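--- STAGE predict ---
source: upstream dedup step, 1 unique chain passed
mode: sequence only
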Amino acid sequence: MLTACSALRKLRSQKRTYLGLGAAGIDIASRRRRIDTLLCCGTSASGCVRATVTDAFMRDIRCMVIRECVADRTTAVLEANLFDLHQKYAEVVSLSNVLAYVASLSAEPHSYRVQREGVA
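--- STAGE serialize ---
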């Protein structure tokens, strides 16, 4: 349960491998703080983003991929990966919904759920 925006600031991490949770220590640090949601963005939806989301899913961590904050080699590759991630492992959400979600955490924990969006 993510209860404070300050926890988000402390757990930002740059990955050096495809799998970001174990190598970057995010898994252990987030469990210590009782954080159960990962906001994911990156420049390779088919590589790093997919690997991190899959890793998070296997560790029972809720993952939200921020649509406006991911990229890939081509639009077709990006859209195919976002569609697949959304169907199997994560919520693909807009940046505006994520910002509203994060803002709601400091006001009333657990009072806001990100609206699930379709992936075209």
